[in-house]
Amino acid sequence: MLDLKEALPLSLYIHLPWCVKKCPYCDFNSHEFTASKDDEDIYVDALIRDLETELPRIWGRTISSVFIGGGTPSLFSVKSLDKLLSALRARLNIYPDIEITLEANPGTAEAEKFRGYREAGINRLSIGIQSFNDKHLMSLGRIHDANEAKRAIDFARSAGFENFNIDLMFGLPNQTLNEALNDLEVAIKNAPSHLSWYQLTIESNTVFFSKPPDIPSDDQSWTMQEQGQAFLQENKYEQYEISAYAKDKQVAVHNMNYWEFGDYLGIGAGAHGKITNVAEGKIERFARHKIPKRYMELVGTESAITEKKSLNRKELPLEFMMNALRLTNGVPPHLYISRTGLPLKNIENELQRAVEQGLINWQLNNLKPTRKGQRYLNELLEMFVN
Length: 386
Hints:
The chain is of the alpha/beta class. The chain has helices at 37-54, 78-91, 111-120, 134-139, 146-158, 177-189, 207-210, 218-234, 253-259, 292-298, 316-324, 333-340, 348-356, 371-375, 377-382; strands spanning 10-16, 18-19, 31-32, 62-70, 93-104, 124-130, 164-170, 194-199, 237-241, 244-247, 263-267, 272-277, 282-288, 305-310, 360-363, 366-369.
């Protein structure tokens, strides 16, 4: 039994699993859209039933953020998302100024839709642009071009979204340093409040894994990252996580909760969740059935959850560090104690070894990775594997 003393912040993740087309680099639970309007209605009803099933697990707790991801959530109609958000408000304790984010792709962007999303209560967009270079968009299998990407940003702004994120990648097939920096320059000219800028990684179970493209070397990608980070800093985008940059401190509330090892309820096909039970002294992870049709058939039953696991004392140090050490400013050591229910002394040897190798700065009120630790994060995390 873990020594847990306080309820953790709680977020809600909602997974909408359909895309127009599966990208060759994507390993998320997404499926090419073959659903009808009736399927969309059935899926939203399934999400509401899923939530109702989970209410006893989170009874009395307040939701601090909502993230609607996918897939391509902007494929769904305004009517469907309005119905879903209304159901959330009727069933959950929600902060009045809660951050509600919707992922949107430029290929599905419409000005009228964006206005409708804003009126439904969505107050933050995350726009999956990936690149402003048509050549690279084609190599990534994206269904939009650079002009459509810029138009989606214009739609977002005209719809009243002051807070929006642009998703960009670097280290793309045959990408040069100048091309990577040019993507950042175009993004900054469009003045997003937040940028997610991360390196393309080749994941298993993707087309790129079975047919690897010609991507920049690790050293070339590191040069892109260093010069890009300097450029972002010059333009007042503060890096607060390995791949996240915020203007005027407009950090992603939902993602910060993940990185600080908070709780999150996940509903929808393939959604994952992490819930801390203070009374029983345990932290549990859950995963739902990945196939949308099967998920809709099983929702509301125990069979809809395909994985359920209580994290043990040996697993928790790595689970915590995998998130917290992504934050460039680090976390206070007491957060480890309160979020895992474990004493700090059980990882003191590992921390001291990381300090000696120049991977971590460990002070009384702060625990954070060094610049070297950020670059060699996998090696750093291996120290906490038991």
